[in-house]
Design brief:
- This protein is an alpha/beta fold.
- The protein is 32% helix and 19% strand.
- It contains ten helices and nine strands.
- The strands form two sheets. The protein has a six-stranded parallel beta sheet with strand order 3-2-1-7-8-9, sandwiched between helices. A three-stranded antiparallel beta sheet has the order 5-4-6, with helices on one face.
- A hairpin with a 6-residue loop joins strand 4 and strand 5.
- Helix 6 runs parallel beside helix 9.
Length: 236
């Protein structure tokens, strides 16, 4: 059996912006409306857990009204020709709903909560049960918290992400400022000579070896699909 080339796709907030999901760092984004250290840090959760529960309840309600965009679906469609792993900084589930079969979440998952006393116990919320409070308990009677990696906390999935990047035959970066570490450093683990594509309407400065497509996620994925379609490569 012939091995499919392995594509690793790293996505940020710009990937979901066209689905109506609020970005964080852009002008008018969530950090303009909420003090970041109050609603997304370990210290903030200790100070005011009720505020953080409500913040993520609001994010979940927003997510329920969103749909995967054409960019999400184009990434999933690449599985026809490639072995595709998605590493996402996003906490939404739009990649999964768009059809991607392997998604690694670096910063947690919005539609999940976990036990505060046994963090290995992770629970998926449903559309009719998305709200949590300080009083929410799991089946064992333990309090729960959002299954989110807060600022000031380690990123548990960074090592699996590094391993995927080291295995990649092609790397694609979509909709990220390239300023959030450790995620921004992942591209440095790609093997020498591996093609790297960067899709963003306002791309950060990157090394010349990276091919920049200054487009939105949907437009960029349409262009990249043309480039990566094996049938088009044969015609060339």
């Amino acid at each position: 059996m012939i091995r499919k080339p392995h594509i690793v796709i790293l996505t940020g907030a710009g990937m979901s912006a066209e689905s109506g999901i609020s970005t964080f760092r852009d002008s008018g984004g969530l950090w303009d409306k909420y003090p970041v250290m109050e609603v997304a840090s370990a210290d903030g959760f200790r100070r005011n857990p009720a505020l953080i529960h409500e913040f993520y309840n609001t994010r979940r309600r927003e997510l329920l009204s969103a749909e995967p965009n054409a960019g999400h679906k184009a990434i999933a469609a690449l599985e026809k020709w490639y072995d595709v792993d998605v590493i996402t900084q996003n906490v939404d589930n739009l990649h999964e709903r768009g059809g991607s079969s392997r998604v690694l979440h670096l910063h947690g998952e919005l539609m999940k909560v976990r036990s505060m006393t046994h963090p290995e116990r992770v629970y998926e919320l449903t559309a009719d049960n998305i709200e949590t409070t300080m009083d929410t308990r799991d089946a064992y009677g333990d309090p729960v918290r959002p299954h989110i990696v807060f600022f000031q906390e380690a990123v548990p999935n960074i090592e699996p992400a590094v391993e995927l990047m080291e295995q990649a035959d092609i790397v694609v970066i979509i909709g990220t400022s390239m300023a959030v570490y450790p995620a921004a450093g992942l591209v440095n683990y790609a093997r020498r000579g591996v093609p790297v594509y960067y899709i963003d309407p306002n791309p950060a400065a990157v090394p010349d070896r990276i091919t920049v497509l200054p487009m939105t996620a949907t437009a960029g994925m349409e262009k990249l699909t043309e480039i990566l379609n094996p049938e088009n490569q044969i015609k060339q």
